[in-house]
Amino acid sequence: MPNQDDFQTVFKKLKSILKKHEPHLTVKGNTADAYYLDAGFSEKYKRVVFFGSVQIKKNYVSYYLMPVYVFSELLKGISPGLKKRMQGKSCFNFATVDEQIFSELVQLTKKGFDKFKKEKLI
Predict the structure, then answer these.
(1) DSSP for 60-97?
(2) Tell me: the pLDDT tens digits for 98-121?
(3) Which of 14, 27, 85, 103 is buried most, with the most CB atoms less than 10 Å from its CB?
(4) C-alpha R_g of the chain
(5) Tell me: the pLDDT tens digits for 58-110?
(6) Helix 4-19 with 99-118: angle, nearest 10 deg
(7) Cα(108)–Cα(69) distance, rounded to whole angstroms?
(8) How buried is residue 44: exposed, middle or buried, by Cβ count under 10 Å (0-12/13-18/19+)?
């Protein structure tokens, strides 16, 4: 059984990754167990586009990154360690801090942010 006490630490570390991009995004939720960011309004999709979030769940902390869902080519070349953390197309789950994987997630999030910006979703 995962140690729930570790989840706040994991949450804070993952939140800090997203928070770097907060000045260019819209905070839609910011609580002790959930942090949500939206990108801008998309003419293509005719709605505001979700960018990412971090949520504490029962057995892990989830990191959602919508750019990898919309632009799956962003996932090319990710490490087996990060790939192992994936659930679905845009979610990564963690029960403990993994600095190496988190460092890779920083880079992937920046690539996703840059791609959203290039595609005028931000």
Answers:
(1) SEEEEEHHHHH-GGGGTT--HHHHHTEETTTEEEESS-
(2) 999 999 999 999 999 999 999 989
(3) 14
(4) 14
(5) 999 999 999 999 999 999 999 999 999 999 999 999 999 999 999 999 999 99
(6) 30
(7) 12
(8) exposed
> SS3 for 48-64, per residue?
EEEEEEEEECCCCEEEE
Q: Which domains does the chain have, with CATH numbers?
A: 4-118 (3.90.1150)
Q: What share of the chain is helix, strand, coil (3-state, %, to 5)?
A: 45, 30, 30
